[in-house]
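Deviations from the work plan: none for this task. Representative record:
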Amino acid sequence: MTETPTTPMTETPPADPLLALDRVEIGLAADPQVRAVDGLDLRVAPGEAVALVGESGSGKSVTAYAALGLLAPALRASGTLRLGASSYDLGDPGALRPLRGGEISMIFQDPGTSLNPVMTVGRQLEDVLRRHGGPPRRERWRRVVDLLAEVGVAAPDRVARAYPFELSGGMRQRVLIAMALSCEPRLLIADEPTTALDTTVQAQIMDLLMTLVRDRGMAMLFISHDLGLVAGSCRRMYVMYAGRVVESGPVADVLRRPRHPYTKALVGCRPTADRRLARLPSIPGTVPPIGSMPSGCRFAPRCPIAVEQCRTADPELRAVGGNVSVACLRASEEES
Amino acid sequence: MTATSPVLRAANLSRSFRVRGTGQEVRALRGVDLTVPAGSAVGLVGESGSGKSTFARIVAGLLQPSSGELELMGTGVAGLPERRRRRLAAPIQMIFQNPRASLNPRLPVHRCVAEPLLAQGVRPARQEVLGLLDRVGLPARVADLHAHELSGGQCQRVAIARAVAGRPALIVADEPVSALDVSVQALVLNLLKDIQEESGTSFLFISHDLGVVRFFCDEVNVLYLGQIVERGDAESVFADPRHPYTEALASAVPDVSDVPDGSGADRSRRIVLNGEPPRPEQPPPGCAFHTRCHRRIGPICDETAPELLPTATGLTRCHLRA
Ligand SMILES: Nc1ncnc2c1ncn2[C@@H]1O[C@H](COP(=O)(O)OP(=O)(O)OP(=O)(O)O)[C@@H](O)[C@H]1O
Ligand SMILES: Nc1ncnc2c1ncn2[C@@H]1O[C@H](COP(=O)(O)OP(=O)(O)OP(=O)(O)O)[C@@H](O)[C@H]1O
Ligand code: SF4
Ligand SMILES: [Mg+2]
Ligand SMILES: [Mg+2]
């Protein structure tokens, strides 16, 4: 695909991003050579929704935690985070703290473990509003109930007075979404934000998020394993495998014509079949554990087209045209 | 238990929760009839908050029903002393909706996985545990980690390895694959199918992913506001939904072909549910779905509660039933 004037601006990596993560490495504090993320670069512009997808355990959530300065003590990050004109060192979580909940907010992957179990969810929402200069005290409760109504919970007044254990999984997830949106962040990191929701509520939440992206210029990093959801919402995507980005580019190109063998295999695994299959297709083999990465391409042990060279040379992410970048030695050969 | 008795049978099962500080009650389940025949996989789908996990927790013995009957392995549980109830539920394993919280944070993964076997007085060899981890796509290294050192999907797979370890008669799986990428999801679903074939394990399978339910389940039940509104074989329920709520659910499944083609045209087939979601403290009179139904026929829907009645392919609770 060549660049044409009709190609939306947002499909090219933004020259003027709101968020830029550069050379992110995340390793064990005790043994920094053991890395969960190894040299990741990522950009999100204002008013842009960007997807981060990839194999379970590939490093999506720890990348998000690192950006918020919230990594577990056992992990250590390096690299830089730029937010607008300011730069921060990812190795200094304290410096990132002031951004949290104001400039950047996050919807965490585990709704069950991210809420305080002994405080009503309404009180927790009020706290967030108070800390970030929300409405005056008298109006705060009203705002809490409105926020819960916005994320589509039935009986928002009851839910506000409930403790987390009194709510269903999807209700807790929506409380977290309301919390993340309450301070009107410039950047939202949404880590699997709709996994506990039925399809109709999910669609409603995606509408809400996309409205904020479109109308308020919110930047969104959308972590998801649901390629259908990514297709319907994001313009660009990054695909991770074993701590690295292996492919990035416009969603339409990556999903319609995946070039990295991992992306290809992933797209091929979707249970799209209308008839009932005896077995679902999956990628043979397992992802290498952190700490014992193969030399050469990390996907080589599972790759159907690997050649000898793949086991020795570590492929760099390189542009292959149409704003797509691929980390595969054979990517362009496969094309022709 | 006889060869033909279902592993699970619920009749007219209800459960309410008192809302603190008010005289009201959340009616989480309202008269649910559901049977899981031996060796089959029965799906439970429905709106967030419709009572799916409440049903699962009653089956697991973590909650008592407010009324109605529950039989496990052909034996009614009402009035059973706690010890007998627990013995009856021994061949049942749960996969909880929140996998991280369901794993003991102080135990290494291999101990978590071995738990159900240890409970049966069997100490599995390490090799056996590693074999189970391998079947859910986890490397041996994971065996010595703790839950907080795992990704969301890794926790979920540990919970699955634990659930299948003891070859239970029934697995109650609450969103078992929601945190997994499609490839790992396929691996795990194939494993569960194998376990079903090898050991005759039955499943009560709760999921928001209709594609997964369609692949895995023989029968599917659709829950709305604590009631079953549609039941049928998984294939026909999603291919040809009879209840308007099921129709809306099926219409909102995201698809890779949703990627915008640049024309700006909205090609979605999605049915948008308008109106406030009803409160489970005060289910609407008449049809519980009438406040949001895109096919509402008229006053009959607002006034008369439809019953769950047979259609050509299953059961549906809608006056439109034809
Ligand atoms: N506290 C920790 N100590 C050691 N290793 C960790 C820790 N937290 C995460 N890891 C490891 O880092 C890797 C990446 O984890 P991460 O949670 O980022 O995966 P993910 O891409 O979000 O996966 P999923 O899709 O399953 O949520 C995993 O292999 C995990 O085991
Ligand atoms: N312990 C409790 N105390 C009070 N109310 C409760 C309790 N447990 C559940 N509820 C209420 O019962 C209703 C049904 O909850 P349940 O967890 O069964 O829903 P669900 O169908 O599993 O939803 P989801 O798909 O979001 O997980 C909800 O309105 C919830 O708030
Ligand atoms: S009974 Fe009426 S309101 Fe209820 S689902 Fe059928 S058509 Fe809709
Ligand atoms: Mg994660
Ligand atoms: Mg639930």
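The longest strand of chain B covers residues 25-36.
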